[in-house]
Amino acid sequence: NLKAIRQGAWKLVLGRTEGSYKAIELYDLHRDIREAENRIEQYPEVAQRLLTTAIHYNADLAKEARPLGRL
After folding, report:
1. Sheet containing 4-7: which strands, arranged edge to edge?
2. pLDDT per residue over 20-69, tens digit each?
3. Read out DSSP for the chain?
4. For residues 43 and 26, what is the distance between their CA atoms, to the nearest angstrom?
5. Fewer CB within 10 A of the end CB, N or C, for the chain?
6. β partners of residue 7
7. Helix%, strand%, coil% for the chain, nearest 5
8. 20: how many CB neighbours lie within 10 A of its CB?
């Protein structure tokens, strides 16, 4: 399960809801390395773009997943 995704200066913290992901927090790490200012309300388009990317990444990871305990 993905917890966050980073692209360039942006980091999106993810949550889970009904089997899917949702955007929780968005940080601009170039300006706020301590992750003190959640920017999700100021940049909803960035959050949505990263959320879409995370959903695609997770689908790709699921295709390659092996059952637990098997090599």
Report:
1. 4-7, 10-17, 20-28
2. 899 999 999 999 999 999 999 999 999 999 999 999 998 887 787 777 77
3. ---EEEETTEEEEEEEETTEEEEEEEEETTT-TT--S--TTT-HHHHHHHHHHHHHHHHHHHHH---TT--
4. 8
5. C
6. 10
7. 30, 30, 40
8. 11
**pTM assigned to the model:** 0.84
Residue 22: phi and psi, rounded to 5, are -140, 155
Residues 6+ apart with CB under 8 A from 51: 12, 14, 21, 22, 23
H runs (alpha helix) in the chain: 44-64
Encoded tokens for 34:
């301590």
Give residue 71's pLDDT: 61
